[in-house]
Amino acid sequence: MSEETIYQRLEKNGVSRRDFLKLCGTLVGAMGLTVPPLESSGLPGHLLTEDQTIRKVAQALESKARIPVIWLEFQDCAGCSEALTRSQSPTLIDLVLNTISVEYHETLTAAAGHQTEENKQSIMKQYAGQYVLVVEGSIPMALGGAYCTIGGRSAIDILEEAAAGAAAIISTGNCAAFGGLPKANPNPTDAKGVWELITDKPVVNIPGCPAIPEVFTGTLAHFVIFGALPELDDLNRPVTFYGKTIHDRCLRRPFYEAGKFANTFDDEGAKQGWCLYKLGCKGPTTHNACATIKWDAGLSFPVQSGHPCLGCSEPDFWDGGGFYQGQSAPLNRPAATAVGAAIGAGAVVGAAMAANNSAQKKRAAQASEE
Amino acid sequence: MNWTTFLHFTRGPLFQVSLLIFVGGMAYRLVRVVLLGWKGDKAPAKGSKLAGVAKTYLKGFLIFPFIPWVKRTFNRNPIMYLAGGLFHLGLFAAILLGTPHMLVWKSLLGFGWPTLPLPIVDWLAAASIAAMIALLFYRRTNSLLKLLTGPAETLNWLLVFLPMVTGYIMTHHLFFQYEVLFSLHMLSVDVLLIWIPLSRISHFMFYFFSRTIHGVEFGKRGVTP
After folding, report:
1. Mutate to test the interface with A, among B6, B10, B34, B103 (most CBs of A within 10 A)
2. CB contact under 8 A, A316 and B101
3. What is residue A46's predicted lDDT score, i.e. its pLDDT?
4. How far off is chain A from B121, nearest CA to CA, in Å?
5. Are A85 and A109 in contact (CB under 8 A)?
6. Helix (H, G, I), strand (E, B), or coil: what is residue A306?
7. Residue A36: which pLDDT band, with cuts at 50, 70 and 90?
8. How far does the CA of residue A233 sit from the closest CA of chain B (Å)?
9. In this structure, which CATH number among 3.10.20.310, 3.30.70.60, 3.40.50.700, 3.30.300.30 belongs to the domain A66-242?
10. Residue range A177-194: average pLDDT?
């Protein structure tokens, strides 16, 4: 990592001052930053502009050196890395990738084997207490961590070692955040999310399958610029991006309110773009920024292209009911045998009580006759 | 435990257990009532019992409740008639014709049906909630009802009110996060399901028994023992 500042590096790469400030503005937008210090200052409204915040971001980027990042992959599919590297919003992603230096990433690194591992060790020593640890994939705890080993070491071992020297940890994707697909019932590997295992370091969760690249970079940029993680919700997700649900911001929401639903994927309702609630949309309980940031440079997101939200940024979404089953429906239907047994048991007890009562009645009648 | 996990619990295992207790409990109550027996006629009665049943359902269940002035309840006790009627109407509109509830039935029964637009269900539900509050107030102030009201009656009111009010707030996305209200709604429904067989809310089933028996008595012409 060079000690030149982020701005110097950008300048060297041909980014003009004007473009740099534009990028700062984009970053401010991506991070959802507002101007609370100015709002409380009592200044007249027309003076309260985002310029102040942009200036602050620009100052930070001009004065700070790039932040080293160690990116670990465990029980994952590299989908989050793929989403980030193939993101279609190059300005923002480039900017963020310019503000960090990825020192270790198994999928992207050119080196391999012991060479990479040694490099990681030296980076961890050199930047102890400074680097950001990004984790992708869940950590298996069953059989002493034997389900996922790298270089002969278990995932939990590698994670704990890397977490010890990290300034902050970012769990990207549902797997690293909440266990994701590997944790789906019956969870054979006893998969866990990072924040369940590492409790002595700040952990921010960026769930999603995959995580939205802009959400990941926005959070990382916040750390780079302010040296601290953004405000988090009760599941350690940045409030800026996860404060609202898909349903809150959905473009099909008016159809929900009006009771206009698509009943199948090819009926008139589906063609008219009506609400997908009946087709299993999990939008109402899914906190994410898909409906606003969208994917592929703001082109679309699942609900817009006609598919119900799967709820991929929520814990245990694989076990949260069928993807195409209405969200209000119970998670599973009780087995017919269980229902039959309940009815049978109720009927038998009822009949026994009734028989007992009628016998008692008969005895009483006999007694009164005598 | 976070709210999503709690929601999975209340929509999953807890709901299943509550449903089984509800079904088993209602089967028990039904068998108990049916096996109470029915005294036969000592002499053949004149008139048609079936016609009596048909008439009592037609008049007493399907027509008269909607023509206020023929009902004594309306003349003597308009609050009970209006609030009671509105409550039942809104309740059934919501649980049978509200889209989210239809999907519950669909997942349990395997088939669904067309539903009402949200604003209509919403107004009926709001009317139901208002009616429930009016009924509680009435129960607390009427001297006769005060004598008839014990802890079980208050609990009946509360356990029906909670699902309605949580459902209403949830639909409007007010005050709390959706999954928080969804969890509380499901929890209150689960508790209600367990409570129904133990309480007079079971009248949703026994109402039809008493009305049928009344119909038989009305249709019969003769001396009853």
Report:
1. B103
2. no
3. 54
4. 10
5. no
6. coil
7. very low
8. 11
9. 3.40.50.700
10. 91
